[in-house]
Amino acid sequence: MLVTNWEPNLDVFVFSQAYLKMCSEQFSMSQLDDVYRHLANYSIQKTKEDKINIVMSSSEFAEQNQICWETEILPKIKSLAYRALKGLQETQTSECNNCFEVYGFDLVLDESY
Hints:
This protein is an alpha+beta fold and 113 residues long. It has one domain (2-102). It has helices spanning 35-38, 42-45, 58-65, 69-88; strands at 2-5, 11-13, 19-21, 55-57, 101-102.
């Protein structure tokens, strides 16, 4: 997310493509001690012996899951990010003209997106 202005209006630009970091094992509440199921951090996942492709583009993710990234996932990400940044708006100051800030969001997607 690229924020170019906090006040008077919040101006946010969202990149339409993303890279997703995947866990190499399926999530399970019954196996909370298994880091390969719960932490998508590349440094952790790369240590797994039987590696799978743990990083994929949003296009690859959409194709693999037979969804449309641009209409099913991206609008929800934009809405969530905007609402999160809007909640911070009053605490931020825009003392610098022609400046911008880049923010990243870590999100978890499940079957219902």
